[in-house]
Amino acid sequence: MIAQPFPQLGTNPGLSSSKANNTTQHGTVAKSEESFPPKLQNHHRALIFKSSFLAGKSPLFNFPSSGHCSTTDEFIKAVNSLVASHKSGSITSRPPKTLDKSISPKGVIKDSTEILHFGNWHLINGKPGSKTAPGKQPDEFELFNIVAAVTAELLDRKRVIQANKNGKLPKSATFPFVTDTLLRKRWAIMYQDYKPVSWFKSRSKAAARILEQYLDYVSQKNSGKTELKSPLLNKTLKAMKPRKKEKSAALPAPKSTSPAVSGVGKSTLPSTTSANIAPPVPKPSLTTLDIRLNYSSDTKRDQYRSTAPISAPASSLRYKEVG
After folding, report:
1. pLDDT higher for 122 or 47?
2. Is 254 part of any domain?
């Protein structure tokens, strides 16, 4: 049995044969539906209803009645059904019935089956064209489910926008990225499984890397493979990999801080280019300069100097040119 978190109403997702301990085959504890908030329960019930409807219209979708999938192919189709159920008008749509019909003549994969094509490449075909990252390898099913949950979040935002064209949109409907907090909520709605936000951090990065390799692979013509386009998953990748902050533009040249001439708004001082700089003033030829220090009057002189006759010469201050 393939370990997976596809739920059935009234049961826990991905439970092993021993349901007593409420532990999934991945080792995570799943909460029962009764412990979920009513709003999430209603969202989940709507997805289950739409998934079962799609499964009855096309073999590319799957709704396991037992809540478990016995093969990887069934698992991929079940998750693809959950994602496609987020589309606006998914009940009235006519989904493709074969893989060939799921690709347009121009090589564009239909958005209701993009997760299906990605899952086949990722979980069945051995990820051709990908590179294995060093270190411990993450769970491939968890990465697939994360990509599916982010894609479902984008489809749900589109549905909300279409349904509220004239009303006020929630902030999450226009947010350019899918944060781990939003991913956690979508994960709970789809898989009936609560996980801490920290659980998604490294796994989201690993899922984005593998999705990027998939998109590089399908967009190339090699080994006789037809070039394909996956527009919805390209948006998913952008939502999972926020752009780095752009480098700030070069600062403009600082404005002149020269003091303005009185009575004029802007400084009219001449520029200091080499063409209009005045030649230096020649140095005087004096070598010494004596300045006689006199009192303002004889009375002041007698006041501040001794009345006794002094034979010393008058005071003077001498300046001498140096250099």
Report:
1. 122
2. no
